[in-house]
Write a structure and sequence with these properties.
The complex is a heterodimer of chains A (287) and B (336). With 287 residues, chain A is an alpha/beta fold. In chain A, 37% of the residues lie in helices and 24% in strands. In chain A, α4 (131-141) packs parallel to α7 and α5 (147-160) crosses α7. Classes of the chains: A alpha/beta (287), B alpha/beta (336).
Chain lengths: 287, 336
């Protein structure tokens, strides 16, 4: 157990020398609890501290797993990092620029570089759009390429993700896909814009075990090929260990422990990390 | 009870509590007949715990619904489900409600938020069950029972006055378990009962289930896609794929030496928490279309699985494996 894991194909080369892509400093997202207008007026407002003063960095080509229970603030952190939500405090430096409070055109330009995939692949697509239209829309919004160029790009991307024949998938509607196919296509859509950073929010927890491995391996391959940084949100420590270089354990909006993935699993320091680990059921396949 | 058919009245003590024989369940759909469960047989001894593991569409929940007799009208069931010596497939609905459901068999569902009524207090929903299934109790006896099961699942008394939306996911799931236990049934089915919960809450509830199993002398059927849950709560594992049993084995044997390729694939598709890191792989042949694979097997009284030739073979005492001949659904899918 104490022996370090052998070098595996997932391990990115020379992560130590990789440049930092994201630097988060004192990030906060407080939601006011609305009691009454007078409470606000007299400064008696109370807040839910969904994300409470967290700081961390992610390097290019690095996968950081964010683990914790529901309500710990994992998803809020993910949404803040791709700016689907705006922080109430702190900074997010992305490739040197503070993107925490961007608006308008600058925000749109940032979003091209930071994408997100969600837990429920069945709700990730407009049910009235074919897959081809949905993928094309992602490119069109950012004015990338002419129609034939976009189509070529979509076909290549689908086929690279083993979704062939691509034209057949493009003609389908979301309800004609399995959960695993939908999630692979959601990942393809996020990757079409060639982002530098991807947030994957519980991307496999709704999928059958037989297809989970495919999605996890797809993400690892994308990281290896494009050197993308990934924030991987999960409640499953075994999955976190499989994909991540480092693990951050989140509890009530704060990071209780951040460190090397193997170290956190083998020797967690914080009592909450220890509790989380002790309660994770062994799958029965540990050697 | 009067309409029920006693099959083995003599062997009351050593007979299994649940004996499923050649169970085949076929749905009639717009796309033709779909065999959701094919020729499944297994037994559960009194006090035992069987785990049905498989992916979506494997038929595991359909089997549970058949045991509870909750299948929709377009389902056709052949084979026998013998519970405590009585074939449940032959019991009429009134007798079923009066003497079986809840009193002898109950089920804890995954989605407690949709299984519980949103507009009634938890206590009232428990009262309703007792009213319906144990009408002879006095008001104070009912109160006592409700207090008892709530205490058993570690819920505070105030939950009686609460509506489901006022409870957390873990509390709601505990309320569902309390509701399942309220008539002291000897047999309880847990259908993905902890799937939606956090790891810590899940492990707490699974520990409670283990304690309740001892305390109430329960026989259980645990349905899950998660081999970890199966490992933690059962003594026998039944692996289902495409409606067929692939392997039936004692738990230790299953995890130490799974014999069927699908069982191995299922165990290997989950990344290990400890030990050496290894690349996990998906399972080929997962995109199973039941309507397509059952095109040949129409509604007939003889179970399609039984005639297909891919039989279950006993390779060790109590360890059955489906031969991986070309006839099995799994072999056909892998070959595609």
């Amino acid at each position: 157990m104490s022996a370090p894991a052998p070098a595996s194909p997932q391990e990115a080369p020379s992560l130590e020398s990789a440049p930092t892509l994201i630097e988060v400093q004192g990030l906060e997202r407080f939601y006011p609890i609305r009691k009454g207008i007078t409470d606000f007026a007299f400064g008696k407002a109370e807040y839910v501290k969904a994300v409470d003063d967290i700081s961390f960095t992610i390097k290019r080509g690095e996968i950081l797993a964010l683990v914790g229970e529901s309500g710990s603030g994992k998803s809020t952190t993910g949404r803040l990092l791709v700016r689907l939500d705006t922080p109430t405090g702190g900074h997010i430096r992305f490739d040197g620029t503070d993107v925490a409070y961007l608006k308008g055109a600058a925000l749109k330009a940032f979003r091209r570089r930071a994408q997100i995939i969600f837990q429920n692949p069945f709700e990730a697509f407009d049910p009235r759009q074919t897959i081809g239209e949905a993928l094309d829309q992602a490119l069109r919004i950012h004015n990338l390429g002419t129609a034939p160029e976009r189509e070529r790009k979509i076909i290549t991307a689908l086929e690279n993700a083993s979704l062939a024949p691509a034209r057949e998938f493009m003609a389908r509607y979301p309800h004609e896909l399995s959960g695993g196919q939908s999630q692979r296509i959601a990942t393809v859509r996020a990757m079409l814009l060639e982002p530098d950073f991807l947030v994957a929010d519980e991307p496999v927890s709704m999928l059958d075990v037989s297809v989970r491995a495919d999605i996890l391996n797809q993400l690892l391959d994308l990281r290896d090929r494009f050197g993308m940084a990934i924030l991987f949100i999960t409640h499953d420590l075994a999955v976190a260990r499989y994909v991540a270089d480092r693990i951050a354990v989140m509890h009530y909006g704060k990071f209780v422990e951040v460190g090397d993935a193997e170290q956190i699993i083998a020797n967690p320091q914080d009592p909450y990390s220890q509790e989380l680990l002790a309660n994770t059921l062994p799958a029965g396949n540990e050697q | 009870m009067s309409q029920a058919v006693p099959l083995n009245p003599a062997s009351a003590s050593d007979a299994p509590l649940l004996d499923v024989r050649n169970l085949t369940i076929t749905y009639r759909t717009d796309r033709g007949y779909v065999a959701a469960v094919r020729d499944v047989s297994f037994t559960v001894p009194k006090g035992g715990s069987i785990g049905l593991v498989g992916e979506s569409g494997s038929g595991k929940s359909t089997i549970a619904m058949a045991v509870m007799r909750l299948l929709p009208p377009n389902a056709r069931v052949t084979g026998q489900i013998i519970f405590d010596g009585v074939d449940l497939t032959q019991v009429d609905d009134r007798a079923l409600n009066k003497s079986w459901r809840w009193r002898k068999l109950s089920m804890v569902f995954q989605k407690s938020l949709s299984a519980l009524s949103p507009v009634h207090r938890i206590g009232d929903q428990m009262h309703d069950v007792l009213h319906q299934h144990e009408p002879n109790l006095t008001e104070s006896q009912r109160r006592e029972k409700i207090d008892g099961v709530l205490a058993a699942v570690n819920l505070p008394q105030r939950v009686i006055r609460a509506y489901p939306f006022e409870l957390s996911g873990g509390q709601m799931q505990r309320a569902m378990i309390a509701l399942g236990l309220i008539c002291n049934p000897p047999f309880v089915i847990f259908d993905e009962a902890t799937t939606a919960l956090d790891v810590i809450t899940q492990s707490q509830i699974l520990n409670e289930v283990k304690r309740l199993k001892q305390e109430f002398d329960l026989t259980t059927m645990v349905i899950s896609h998660d081999v970890g849950v199966i490992n933690a709560t059962t003594d026998t594992v039944a692996v289902l794929y495409g409606g067929q049993l692939m392997e039936l084995a004692p738990r230790e044997t299953f995890f130490k030496a799974p014999a069927h390729p699908y069982s191995k694939a299922l165990i290997d598709s989950v990344p290990p928490l400890h030990g050496p890191k290894r690349r996990i792989t998906g399972i080929s042949g997962w995109k199973l279309d039941l309507a397509e694979t059952s095109a040949g097997s129409q509604l007939s009284s003889s179970a399609p699985g039984a005639s297909s030739g891919a039989a279950m073979v006993e390779i060790a005492p109590g360890h059955f494996v489906r031969s991986t001949g070309t006839e099995s659904v799994f072999a056909q899918e892998v070959a595609r």
